[in-house]
Amino acid sequence: MALRITDACINCDMCLPECPNEAIFEGQKVYEIDVARCTECVGFYEHQTCMAVCPIDCIEIHPEHIESKAALEEKFKALKII
């Protein structure tokens, strides 16, 4: 799975430095998450750090990008090559 940031985002900057894959970036209105880079912190942490620090809980599972833990681990390994 990948995560996404909803339109409720207040651009507080809390999530940006927390992403170990540098998947979060500043979008036109709110921060966004690059689904190709998001591993839900698999390979780094037990829990999604961006979700943990978000003060308004506007980060959620992206329903269009459902991936198994094994798929996330493979994505993590591939990103380490880049």
TrEMBL record:
Domain 4Fe-4S ferredoxin-type positions: 1-29, 31-64
UniProt keyword list: Iron, Iron-sulfur, Metal-binding
One Pfam family linked to the record: Fer4
Matching InterPro entries: 4Fe4S_Fe-S-bd, 4Fe4S_Fe_S_CS, YfhL-like
UniProt xrefs under SUPFAM superfamilies: 4Fe-4S ferredoxins
Single Gene Ontology MF annotation: iron-sulfur cluster binding
Record-linked PROSITE patterns: 4FE4S_FER_1, 4FE4S_FER_2
Protein name per UniProt: 4Fe-4S ferredoxin-type domain-containing protein
Organism whose genome encodes this protein: Acinetobacter tandoii DSM 14970 = CIP 107469
